[in-house]
Amino acid sequence: MSDSEKNLEKAPLPESSPPLQGERVAFTGTLASMTHQQAFTLTEQNGGTATQHLGRQNTILVVGEEGWPLEEDGQPSVKLQEAADLLHTGHPLRILQESEWLQLIDLQEPSQESHTLYTPAMLHKALDVPVNLIRAWERRGLIKAVKKVYRLPYFDFQQVAGVRRLMQLLDSGISPDQIESSLQRLETIFPEMERPLAQLELLAHDHHLLLKDSVGLFEPASGQRFFEFNSDEQSLEQTETKGTVPFPVETHEEIFTSDNPETLFQEACRALDANELERAQWGFRQAIQLTPAKAEYHFHLAETLYRLNNLSGAIERYHNTVEQDPFYLEAWTQLGCLYAEQNRHVEATRYFQAALSLHPKYPDAIYHLAEVLQQLGRPQEAAAHWQTYLHLDARGPWAENARQSLQQWEETSQEDQQR
Q1: How many whole angstroms separate alpha carbon 65 and alpha carbon 32?
Q2: pLDDT tens digit sequence for 275-319
Q3: CATH topology of domain 24-207
Q4: Where are the domains of the chain?
Q5: Which residues of the chain have pLDDT under 70?
Q6: pLDDT at site 164
Q7: What's the pLDDT score for residue 417?
Q8: Whole-number pLDDT of residue 344
Q9: pLDDT number for residue 418
Q10: Which of 213, 239, 243 has its CA nearest to residue 225?
């Protein structure tokens, strides 16, 4: 081997450049994985320059994935409008979704799904949207599960966050036409606008429709009730003709007249979505009388009873659910949560473990089992589950709590060893 070859062999390999070297990065919208300040810090650590404003010097605009980037007035964010103008003039600006940016700086593997998948309970924690509302959105076709594991739906985070954002804008009084116009303006940047436009159409329809039952008027999208200020019969008749659907005022037994269990179930689900819990309970019970072996009917009745503060009734119906379908994953987890709520932690562990025997990578069950084990004074076992959870979901809604609990256990263990 020649001297030059030996020298080449000994020479250190050049270090690769930081992924954002030479890039000027701006951010718009709400980031799902971190705050804007944390994103600025990561940009600097990876060789880039983070900027508060967007200008011709910028090379990258990162769009947060917690809902569509629409302002309070329903308009696209200022930076997105500026980005569209820059692109129109031929400026070489790259627009990245948050998940694409995370891949670029190696915080998300390219082999992972482009968007993190979340269970309904995880979405509730991350977005402050009730689990029952997430289920209602799925039933109405507003969101679609990316996959299901033993009936447990996993959703794309951005899809659900987008629906929440659209609902917030509609609730604030922004017209559907104005939101639709803004979404269409974003179409030049995001080609996937077809889905949120369809979601907007469904939401807008619900927001224009008021249903009437024996109590009064309510909005099916949110379950919110409305006062009727017109007391005379003529005004009431006028109100009922403006997009309202009257329900009969008879007892619940007379409301559900079908002898088809699936029809009864669908009517009860609509009542549940509208927060008409007594009506929903009656419908589910009638459906179960006709088809006692249908696990889904028992599961929905259990949810209804829980929302009616009938904890023992809910537990019994969740037991009925797993008796009819031992693979009903969410029912096992709900049993664990309800027993934990009653401070019956030993029993709760059995149900979480039953869920994990079906789906070992089920984040909800792993997290809740760790919590219960900690309550039982079994910190080492809990720590193993905290580690497993963080391996599955390092940036999810419960990740920080898991990380803090694990750190606390590690510090306690070190103190014990030093004694």
Answers
A1: 6
A2: 999 999 999 999 999 999 999 999 999 999 999 999 999 999 999
A3: Rossmann fold (3.40.50)
A4: 24-207, 209-246, 252-412
A5: 1-16, 67-68, 108-115, 187-255, 415-419
A6: 78
A7: 65
A8: 97
A9: 63
A10: 213
Which position has the token pair 């509302």? 133
Confidence (pLDDT) at 152: 92
CATH 3.30.70.1130 for domain 252-412, yes or no, is no
Residue type at 121 in one-letter notation: A
pLDDT score recorded for residue 210:
42
The residue type found at 392 is L
pLDDT value of position 166: 76
Q: Secondary structure of the chain in the HEC alphabet? A: CCHHHHHHHHCCCCCCCCCCCCCEEEEECCCCCCCHHHHHHHHHHCCCEECCCCCCCCCEEEECCCCCCECCCCCECHHHHHHHHHHHCCCCCEEEEHHHHHHHCCCCCCCCCCCCEECHHHHHHHHCCCHHHHHHHHHCCCCCCCEEECCEEEEEHHHHHHHHHHHHHHHCCCCHHHHHHHHHHHCCCCHHHHHHHHHHHHHHHHHHCEEECCCCEECCCCCCEECCCCCCHHHHHHHHHCCEEECCCCCHHHHCCCCCHHHHHHHHHHHHHCCCHHHHHHHHHHHHHHCCCCHHHHHHHHHHHHHCCCHHHHHHHHHHHHHHCCCCHHHHHHHHHHHHHCCCHHHHHHHHHHHHHHCCCCHHHHHHHHHHHHHCCCHHHHHHHHHHHHHHCCCCCCHHHHHHHHHHHHHHHHHHHHC
